[in-house]
Fold:
Amino acid sequence: MTVNRSAPAISARAVRKSFGDHVVLDGVDLAVAEGTIFALLGPNGAGKTTMVRILSTLIAADAGDIQVGGHDVAGDPGAVRALIGVTGQFSAVDNLLTGEENLRLMADLRHLGRAAGQRRIAELLERFDLTGAARKPLTAYSGGMRRRLDLAMTLVGDPAVIFLDEPTTGLDPRSRRTMWQIIRELATDGVTIFLTTQYLEEADLLADRVAVLDHGRIAAEGTPAELKRRIPGGHIQLQFAGPDALHAAAALIPDAVPDDDQLILQIPGDGSVASLRRLLGELDDTSIDVEHLSIHSPDLDDVFFAVTGHATTDPATGQEEKVLQS
Amino acid sequence: MTSVAYTLTDSATMLRRNLKHQLRYPSLTLMLAGFPIVFLLLFVYVFGGQLGTGLGGHGAGGRGAYLTYLVPGILIITVASAALGTAISVATDMTGGIIDRFRTMAISRGAVLTGHVIGSLLQTLAVLALVAGVALALGFRSSASALEWLAAAGMLALFAFALIWLSAALGLAARSVETASNTPMFLTLLPFLSSAFVATATMPAGLRQFAEYEPFTPVTQTVRGLLTGGPIGMQAIAAIAWSIGIALASYLWAVRLYNRRRAATPN
Structure:
């Protein structure tokens, strides 16, 4: 395995991909430094999975220049495949085999040899807390165990670059925390990690750099701290009982952004006592009833909103445009 | 290791995987064997008494004679039935997530399909042995020499190889496992329109021509000639030509489908 140390582990320039008339990636540029965790953040349908499938040689881009570990994805996919490990969104395990047999299959396909394979398998079973279930069929595995096995299978060949497509989607909070821990350890070992997520908290916690993908374009890129600095402050969120109260309040406060579906009004502000007192005073004067009030300090959710102009809703439902545009 | 060595190693790995599947879940193999065995029993014990009397030149007629006539046909049906399993196992693989994992690994091309095809071939041979055992238990006796048995086994294996590639292609073409288990069904119907159950000479014109020219008849006649005596002639050449033709065309189709699939999967 050879990785060109001077080049970034992953670099992509002007990547385009359409399925029929549907443009999924519309000129994506990104670079991931070796040994770092990079998070591609975006709602369902933003093109995250397509990006992973292109970077991991599963599908070809329509246009663009993509290198992984210094090898061209289109020109030398074999060399890229020898370097990478991929854990997709959908479980990529053999359901008819046991956990150990799944790992054995990977060791054989990586041509590790009997003894080295055996050692690696034992090590991974131990590390992923699967030793007890090693000889059990996968039907006896929980969702979290399957996901751990999935990742363990990816690691059998010691890949230098790992792609994780929504690694924690559908996991319970405890399994999610375990997965985060594993991802951090991998990065400490010098593995480059490219992960996609729709959880802003996850990107915030794990990633060295975050790119926000929206409608096939990178809307913003930077460290989580840099991105959060782009948000002037937090906001105050008011919950109303009905649309009338919501609209009355929205008319009263010029900067406010109403959400008709959730009957929520977002008001930019840092939540200082003075600003709260003023706000509540105004609402009181006009006799608008507020059901609930909460104060949000800036997080990546706000970043997403700020850079894309809409919330992280699913474009497939057609909701994203009507929300929060004033 | 050279790339040829890798191809062999990877194919062997995939073969082991498929054999493990078969051993762990023998119900599919038993189902594939059950179909020809039920037909064997049905045709010998329900229809055999009457069908046997209609056999000219096959000894005294009756159930025993029909058993002798039928067994080569049943072995061909076994091959067709066992090939169904390939479509199901290929489609199960292609609709599952693991195929994407294989495609992101540096595995030699074709190892996945080779593993399926060789695995199915071994499965078919096992099922053939089982069905032949049942036929022998029912009283089937062959006049064949060891060499003729071997030649018959070779003919069945070659034809099985052809139908398995065809079934693999059908499994790749199917969008779901359900479709994959239905589309190759015609393979189990074609033997009925051949000399497997009754002599083609007894069929009406049109149907008879079809029966005489479709691949199952020369294969049946070749195996029948080898196992129970009787003329083979040009039938063997037709049987081998059909088998190689089907195998080659199906192989090319399957590889094309396998390669195209990766480009077509959206998102």
